[in-house]
Amino acid sequence: MPSYSRRDALKAIPALAAGLAGCASLTGRDDSLPMPTAWTADVRTPTRALRPSSGPLLVGTGSPFHADPMVSALDPETGEERWAVTGRKGHRSPLALDDRHAYLFSKAERATAVDYETGEKSWTTGLTGVDRADPGVVQYPPVVAGDTVVFPISGTENDVVDRLLGLSREEGERRFRAELPASLAGAPAAAPAGDGSDAGVVAPVLDGTLRRFATDGSESWRVDVGPSPSSVAVAGDTVFVGSATEELLALDAATGEVRWRAPLRNTVFARPLVADGRVYVGGADYFVYAFDAETGTRLWRDELAGPVTCGPTRVGDRLVTVVGSDILVRGHSGTVPFDPTALYVHATDGTLVDEYRLERTPDGGRVNWAVAAGDGVYVGQEWQLARLDAEVLDAE
Questions:
Q1: Which InterPro entries does the UniProt record give (predicted)?
Q2: Cβ neighbours of residue 14 under 8 Å, at least 6 residues apart?
């Protein structure tokens, strides 16, 4: 079980109440988001929004209802819907993108590629052993690796064969199936081969191992990194992952050799962010950190109001991080609620730009995530997607 409860039992409830009472970000009487928004759109349980370099804003839904779209294309400036693709059965995975398609899979036992310019399905491939599995089986997005798209099929209970399924990006034809010894602990990521091409995927497994698979399904390497590794980030030839051993690790993507270990004070729930020679990571220890990506030297850290559950994500010279809310922790923990929920904006040098705490549940439900997509930052709630106003990032 992750050690997220170690740090003063995630701080005592009275301390949280005192912090909320003293917060000036929520002095209004309405239940709108405490930060200015450019627009909001009605999307039930939106998955994390993505935007290709040229194209619409793409968002999926984790809704259990059949009529809710599997994927929708929105105008990034207005939030207006351009097209939507529906499908059978609820519970769909978050999206993955390449230069033409959005990929996802669903409890309807289908893997699907959608042309994101037209909204037309390019192919659909049948899956097995997904329909009767727990909803967590579609928790993580597919991974685009070379000419293959890898679907991480892995539940939170013992009701599914945990596996990676590789399909052709062009036709959806089956390339490989690699079974895992335990559930995924976080989201996999594409990793380069020795020649620098995107020809593999690195998967964090709940047995404490990090495993790299080639696109023929063969296992290239495995490394024991300790229990409950986080979602994986890859930049160049380096893999970054957090661990419940209270470390951030950097590994050689081709060999799995550990290059450095940087100490944290608790486990990591979110995927690290790598940009401009730095790796940023938020911990369950209430801190957001910046490390030198080459050496692992800590550059700065800042204490927040709760465990980091999403981010940091980056737009320009700003970092946006979410703490609190509900998070599904793999293993025996299940869905864990953390309070308070808050959104932070930092400069990349660690300077705190602004803080927005959500004292009550706002219109649209609890905030689940915030991501950068193109030149905007988007916030996903239980029943709503919002684009934050530019002044959120410009505030000083």
A1: PQQ_b-propeller_rpt, PQQ_rpt_dom, Quinoprotein_ADH-like_sf, TAT_signal, WD40/YVTN_repeat-like_dom_sf
A2: none
